[in-house]
Amino acid sequence: MNAWTNIKTITKRELGAYFSSPLAYVFIVIFLLLCGFFTFFIGGFFERQEASLVRPFFDWHPWFYLFLVPAVGMRLWAEERRVGTIELLLTMPITAWQAIVGKFLASWLFLALALALTFPVVISVNYLGHPDNGVIFSGYIGSWLMAGAYLAISCITSAMTRTQVVSFIISVVVCLFLILAGFPPVINFLQQIAPAGFVDMVTYSFRRVPKRCHRFAGFNFLSLGDRLFALHHQRDFTHSSSGLRTFHAKETIRNHSLFDRRHHWDAGVGDFV
């Protein structure tokens, strides 16, 4: 089996796991309700009297993803550890990066499905006016990349911890920092604890809203690399521990076989006597 076949198999497995439980449907319903409520009521879609979705719709997505995306990504690796299937997964004839990419793509496609189901908002704005659909399409692409960045962080925390709740809390804290990184209180705090070059990079990067797309893509690749490094060492430990378990299993089977033979031999001698 080639690499793409392994990735596709893991992706199908994870997508099936999502939709086999109420988690997927609860996430989609909550996300759609929040989008509709904040767009038409809190965001002042009708009061603005302009055919645009930038302010009333896309400005709320970072706050939606702050809690919903970590809820989706917290189970990817923590659940495997809790159930005990991560050792079976890492000892299969697949590489660590194939398992990582397969799980990440499954969750990212699930988020893309949830985002695509907001199409009634686009239909509404086109019915009421004449918006620039190119800008709307670019907004959807940027929102999907942002969801991927949040998801990559959630995957890292899920791989580092054994509890889904701990993974969720750490992911929310890190993603909240990314949202607030351009605000003056955060910049003043960073100036006290971080080098000036790092503060300048954060200030320039997070205040340039049009450049967020490739920043989110960079976070995705960086996070995938971090998970690959962590799981590579975990895979080595899994192979060594599985070898010890295999040795003990063989010894147990051999002892049981000797016991059965001895039992049958004693029974045969008793019958003979």
What does this structure look like?
α2 (23-42) runs antiparallel to α4 (61-73), α4 (61-73) runs parallel beside α9 and α9 packs across α10 (164-180). The chain contains 13 helices and no strands. The relative contact order is 0.11. 83% of the residues lie in helices and 0% in strands. The chain has 273 residues and is mainly alpha-helical. The chain has helices at residues 3-19, 23-42, 45-48, 61-73, 75-83, 86-90, 96-116, 119-128, 133-160, 164-180, 184-193, 196-207, 212-272. It has one domain (3-272). The radius of gyration is 26 Å and the shape is globular.
Structural class: mainly alpha
What portion of the residues fall into strands of 2 or more residues? under 5%
Helix content: over 70%
State the end-to-end distance: 60 Å
- The helix tally amounts to 13
The pLDDT mean sits at 76
How many domains? The number is: 1
Shape: globular
Uncertain spans: 208-273
CA radius of gyration:
26 Å
Reconstruct the topology from this structure.
Layout: H1 3-19, H2 23-42, H3 45-48, H4 61-73, H5 75-83, H6 86-90, H7 96-116, H8 119-128, H9 133-160, H10 164-180, H11 184-193, H12 196-207, H13 212-272
Helix pairs in contact: 1-7, 2-4, 4-9, 4-10, 5-9, 7-9, 7-13, 9-10, 9-13
